[in-house]
Amino acid sequence: MATTLPASPTSSTQPTSAKRSLKTVAPAVPLIPPADILETPPDLESAVRQTLHHAVSPPPNRPDAPPDGHPEAGIGLAIAYVAAYLTMYVALMTPVMSTLAVKVGSLTTDSGKVVALSLVTGVGAFFAFVANPIAGALSDRTCSKMGMRRPWLFGGVLGGAIGLTMIGLATHVWMVVLGWAIAQACFNATQAALQAILPDQIPSRMRAKVSGWLGVGQNVAPLIGIALAFWFADSGLPISLMIIVPAALGVTGVFILAFILKDRMLRPEEVSRFKLSSFIKGFWVSPKRFPDFAWAWLGRFMIFFGFASYNNYQVYFLQDRFGYTDAQALNWQLKLMVIQAIALTAAAAVGGQLSDRSGRRKIFVVIAAVLAGLGLAVFALAADPSVLYYGAGLWGLGLGAYLAVDIALVTDVLPNARTEAAKNLGVFNIANALPQSLAPAVAPVFLAVGATATMPANYTSLFLMATVFALVGAATTMFIRGAK
């Protein structure tokens, strides 16, 4: 979704739209601006005109050039960027969607698997919640000779692969908990650096398109991982390969991007001193000062809470409702993911193009959330597995349209985008990670509603709750005034 930015102010004048937005009543949500900001930050269009090192002024006919004097992103970097997203999410999302459930199920009983999986995913999501903003803040201050983002790309993806290897070789649930905590923390450090590349090097007029393909890569990734998992299960190969092979793909993709990236460089004298106390105090963005960012944060939180409530329990849903084995559940999951991926790719490509041409973002987010909510409702009420195909199609259309424009929307309302893009994008990713931690804690309550000996988990209750969260998330987006 491309948003038409407000008219560019001078460095000392706040836009009229921004002044009006200060009156908006926004929810109190924990976000992170720098603690010492005393004035409204420039909008992103102004931010990309000024660099952290030098004030590089782009040509008059190119007001949206990337910061730091970088040349416009070429096809090679764009392909590597999308490929890195794709392969990292193959490593990260395959366990979330399927292989963690299979691994935990192999170590526990049928009656204990839901609680055990909730423990694993909840602890891991907490580490993601903490790691993402901290890694983003440190990335913004990294003065390495390798650049600002590259050290976090290398170190994060290697650490994540180590955590996944621990899970693959685990013989007890506590080992899975530990391995997933490490994997989530490290992959989220990588994610903070990856997302910062978008405002670092991609001009604003291209961001919706690039964001759309990032969304495609992020959501086609589980399809690749589940296909591998099904092949390993159907071939009778060890469960460990379902987890370790995707980890190797993640390392490969991120390493290729890191090697070709012309990273931003900082000198030590250009970087403010990092104080943990100030950082912790900064875990708040005043809703009166940054209402658009607050509403965007809350909208993503609600929508991703709905997503997490479905994704974490998809395998067990197929097994418990339809009586499938591991291989059968993975086979059905793969078929549903194919439909979802086709719908997602189409919606992301079309949504990004329409958003760029119309200059609108919010309407696409609302439509996307409604479609995803309808897909969840179909899953909740399905009594025949063939009906799941319709749910997958609606879910894919909604997810694709949402992810095509979501990051582009956020970069348009990002506080202090000039100097702390990675940190504040990391803060925004709390709205991804926190639902993944809270949903497993809440899910057993809804799964227990009306449960019986023959139906030990009520997935209808859980998925209808997820539908409500997605629709509420769509409604909050309409309160954002800094984007159309």
Strand content: under 5%
Radius of gyration (Å): 22 Å
Low-confidence stretches: 1-65
Percentage of residues in helical conformation? 55-70%
**What are the secondary-structure elements, in order, as H or E?**
HHHHHHHHHHHHHHHHH
Give the class-level CATH name. Answer: Mainly Alpha
Q: Assign the CATH superfamily.
A: MFS general substrate transporter like domains
Provide the residue-averaged pLDDT. Answer: 76
Number of strands: 0
Sheet bearing the most strands, described?
none
User: Would you tell me which CATH topology applies?
Assistant: Growth Hormone, Chain: A
The CATH level-2 architecture is identified as Up-down Bundle
Can you offer a commentary on this structure?
- The protein is mostly helical.
- The chain has one domain: Growth Hormone, Chain: A, CATH 1.20.1250.20.
- Helix content is 69%, strand content 0%.
- The protein has 17 helices and no strands.
- The protein has helices spanning 16-21, 44-49, 75-107, 113-140, 150-169, 173-201, 204-234, 239-260, 276-281, 291-311, 314-322, 326-358, 362-381, 388-412, 421-428, 430-448, 459-477.
- α4 packs antiparallel against α16 (430-448) and α6 packs across α15.
- It is globular, with a radius of gyration of 22 Å.
- Mean pLDDT is 76; it is low at 1-65.
Give the gist of this structure.
By secondary structure, this protein is an all-alpha fold. The chain has helices at 16-21, 44-49, 75-107, 113-140, 150-169, 173-201, 204-234, 239-260, 276-281, 291-311, 314-322, 326-358, 362-381, 388-412, 421-428, 430-448, 459-477.
